[in-house]
Hints:
By secondary structure, this protein is mainly α. The protein folds into two domains: 18-277, Fic-like fold (Orthogonal Bundle); 296-364, Arc Repressor Mutant, subunit A. The protein has helices at 18-40, 45-48, 50-63, 70-77, 85-109, 116-127, 167-178, 185-199, 206-220, 232-237, 239-252, 255-295, 300-309, 315-321, 326-338, 359-364; strands spanning 312-314, 343-346, 355-357. A hairpin with an 8-residue loop joins strand 2 (343-346) and strand 3 (355-357). Helix 12 packs antiparallel against helix 13.
Amino acid sequence: MKPYVPIKLPLSTTTWDWQALVLKIGLANRNLAYFDGVLSSIINPTLFLSPLETKEAVLSSKIEGTVTTVYEVLKFEANVKPDSISKQWDIQEVLNYRSAMRHAIEWINRGLPFNSTLICSIHKELMSGVRGANKQPGQIRTAQNWIGKPGASMEQATYIPPEPLGLSDHLLNLIEYIEKKDQEPILQTAILHAQFELLHPFLDGNGRTGRILVPLFLWHKKLIKSPVFYISEYLEANRDQYYESLRLISLKGEWEAWIRFFLEAVASQADQNAQKASQVLSLYQVMKTRITNLTNSPRGIQILDNIFASPIIESTLFIKQSGLNKQTGRRIITRLKEEGILFTLQPAAGSRPEILEFKELLDIL
């Protein structure tokens, strides 16, 4: 097998079955617009849906073999450490994914361009201090890499990405393409993701970097008002088809099949994301009334936002982030526990504070 030679973008699409594709594009755009409408009813969707962001990080990392859960990550952040060092590595990879996403959001919010520098900075944040940290984080590879079973030689590879010598030109072509104004943005997103994965420009971490680019680019192209469209749940559930659709591009130039798969992924995931976001929003509205009445505190909304942003949290941090003094904070925690809103995940012991959990939000996740 020889290294893949990427096709120059834009693609020639004259032979595509546009009658079928237009229907899929329409459905994907409609479902995405509906999801965006749900987001528009949320005051701060990035903060409000942060637990769903954690779920995306977990599932995207799972595709690459990282084994952890949303629950384990949230407990880790609340200072409940797993016994296994390997599990701690897995959790840190998930936290890096989330950190890389937030770094990229800040970059775009500052009006900086969607370019190779952004992509390299995402990769650097993603790989910092975890497995693969010795593989030139944030740097376009200067060596040949390949994909295969663990320990496979290049001769046994299932895919060999392009040779490193021309990578900079291929990435430049990709960036030039995604900035074109006369293309259907959702098709551009599909092509961006596939071409990036086929280029495999880094020694490690390409899959996760490429999946981070999906919501960022949809946001950059103003298809969604906030970069909280999470697609990894569908890709993980359809992992074999995901990889096979990408492989067929390199083997046979089957771009149309990949586009169909990606559009189906967006349509399905947008529908699921809208349902999840609506469930979270409905729970928020119910809890807004309950917590305001139960706490009888001017900090009621701050308390509410706090438990939605951090559904597993140390009691001391809960009190501090809710803007309460210790005495009032303890009284409110007791009241919320009595009413079955908060539960004790881990009791206080010595200097270690109690760990609280908000089960109804965790159940939605």
